[in-house]
Amino acid sequence: MNIKGQLQCQETVLITGAASGIGYQLACIFASENYHLVLVDRNEIKLLEIAIYFQDKFNILVKTIVKDLSIASSPEEIFTELQQADIQVNILVNNAGFGTYGLFNETSLKNELEMLQVNLVCLTHLTKLFLKDMVKQGKGKILNVSSAAAFQPGPLMAVYFATKAYVLSFSEAIANELEGTGVTVTVLCPGSTVSAFHERTGMADSKLVKGQKMMDAETVALIGYDALMRGKTIVIPGLLNKILAKSVRFFPRKLVTKIVRSMQEDK
User: Fold this and answer.
1) Contact at 8 Å (CB) between 10 and 90?
2) Which of 40, 44, 166, 265 is the most buried (most CB within 10 A)?
């Protein structure tokens, strides 16, 4: 059966940042549930390995798209490529994202502008592009991956925390707008998760990370998937993360910011 024909038989999920971490674990879950996949990442070798493995194990179709999402034209290019292939995306997972660590006046402007593009602009752009067809069809799901960082300011990761606050606010707002359309929006806000994120950002020795027990990416993905399927708007994996996220509203913002600064600092 050709790609067009087979893709019409069952639903298709697009996942950004699919080559590792939470994105990869979400891809595993969707594959095991017999969804076809469109996997987006800049790691071409890893994407191809995943595609071959999923196709052999689950007998699904996997389309890989190698893109650097820090480039502004990437969302439109992804959308156009899928339109030309006559592939309809039923579920959009905006998972791609990264962070930088350090004092804002010392960190790289180039890295932070790229982070804004990936974490915030690309997510918004892809949502805008794919949402219209979902509303027209009267069904669809969107999962935006934010962070527990979304609930407070984050000294030493100021821009990253701010991008995640945007993702949370944006997701809540459009979830409200979409009530009654058949389309749901879920925002996943995990705490610190076992992944290469902390090493890449240079915060592996911070109090927040070093020696702390963190949730694994597979568990976070399962919680996010379950919330998405149930149409839940906000999901915060882990009881402690839920308590911390909800409790910050009861303390002065200045105090909360100082506490986060202390946790972010190296031991």
Assistant:
1) no
2) 40
Provide the pLDDT confidence category of residue 212 given band limits of 50, 70 and 90.
Answer: low
Q: Give the C-alpha separation, 56 to 50, whole Å.
A: 10
Q: Per-residue pLDDT tens for 32-86?
A: 999 999 999 999 999 999 999 999 999 999 999 999 999 999 999 999 999 999 9
In whole angstroms, what is the distance from residue 142 CA to residue 41 CA? 18
181-216 as b/e, with b when 16 or more CB fall inside 10 Å? eebbbbbbbbbbbebebbeebebeebebbeeeebbe
Instruction: Just list the catalytic residues.
Output: 160
For the chain, the 3-state helix, strand and coil shares in percent, each to the nearest 5, are 50, 15, 35
Residue 63 contacts residue 39 (beta carbons within 8 Å):
yes
Separation CA 16–CA 69 (nearest Å): 9
Question: Which pTM was predicted?
Answer: 0.89
Residue type at position 96:
A
Specify the length of the chain in residues: 267
Domain range summary for the chain, segments of one domain joined by +? 9-264
C-beta neighbour count of 46 within 10 angstroms: 16
pLDDT at 218 over 70: yes
